[in-house]
Design a protein that fits this description.
By secondary structure, this protein is an alpha+beta fold. It is built from 10 helices and 5 strands; from the N terminus they run αααββααβαββαααα. It has 2 domains: 6-176, 2-Layer Sandwich (Beta-Lactamase), CATH 3.30.450; 178-243, Arc Repressor Mutant, subunit A (Orthogonal Bundle), CATH 1.10.10.
Length: 248
């Protein structure tokens, strides 16, 4: 990925950093990744000659999914890219390179998507890859007028992409943290159920869960959640006597 240093781009693009800083503060205070990135999409849409912005992130299994947009047309344009497997945002996400379409009506790189985009009133796009130390996704900026973006605007888009990348990475890290905490809580609840039901110690209850998980080839957290929610695991009792003889 080759981009000019942000310090150089700042002088050219003249991005209002105060508004971006406030947007990031507001985004990082949101409870969900979708809300946080919604703030950034709305902010990005207001920072250039484009009229709308959308953000697509890599999800589980490296499957991209649209997560935020400043308006419905942008969300629909992103959805078309994912359905067709073509478009500027799709290419930015896959290649991790900036992709600019100065005139969508004559651009031949994405013929199927371009026809749909023109129908949505889109005439020009800038698609920016989102990344930190890993690939995160892409942000696409949509304009209504062909050749609306000059070099300074494109650098501005890259700067916005860097800020959106920070918010996206933070949201992903926070989601993973809460998922891990939730998993530990569920396992602890399942241990408590087993301790009471079979008069086991905490270590023995965990050994029972682990052995059952291995026997059934089911992840420990998934197994624990099933036990907590239903109170039942098939053939669990036959493992309990074995687990009672182990402390780990």
């Amino acid at each position: 990925m080759s981009e000019r240093p942000l310090s150089t781009a700042l002088g050219v693009a003249d991005l209002p950093l105060a508004s971006i800083a406030e947007a990031m503060r507001a985004a990082l205070a949101r409870r969900s990744a979708g809300d946080a990135l919604g703030v950034m999409a709305t902010t990005a849409a207001a920072q250039g000659p484009w009229h709308a912005a959308s953000i697509t992130l890599m999800g589980s299994g490296n499957v991209p999914a649209p997560v935020a947009s400043s308006e419905p047309q942008a969300a629909l344009a992103d959805s078309h890219q994912l359905e067709l497997g073509e478009g500027p945002g799709w290419d930015a996400l896959r290649s991790e390179q900036l992709h600019v379409a100065h005139d969508v009506t004559i651009d031949e790189r994405w013929p199927r998507w371009s026809r749909l985009a023109v129908g949505l009133g889109i005439a020009a796009t800038v698609a920016v890859p989102l990344f930190t130390d890993t690939r995160l996704g892409a942000m696409t900026l949509y304009g209504r007028t062909p050749h609306a973006f000059d070099p300074a605007d494109i650098e501005r888009a890259q700067i916005l992409g860097a800020h959106v990348s920070v918010v996206a990475a933070h949201s992903r890290m926070e989601q993973n943290l809460w998922r891990a905490i939730d998993g530990r809580n569920i396992i602890g609840q399942a241990q408590g159920i087993l301790m009471e039901r079979y008069q086991l110690t905490a270590e023995q209850a965990f050994a029972l869960l682990r052995r059952y998980s291995q026997a059934q080839n089911v992840k420990l957290a998934v197994l624990a959640r099933e036990l907590v929610e239903s109170g039942i695991l098939a053939d669990l009792g036959q493992h309990a006597g074995v687990a009672a003889r182990y402390d780990s």
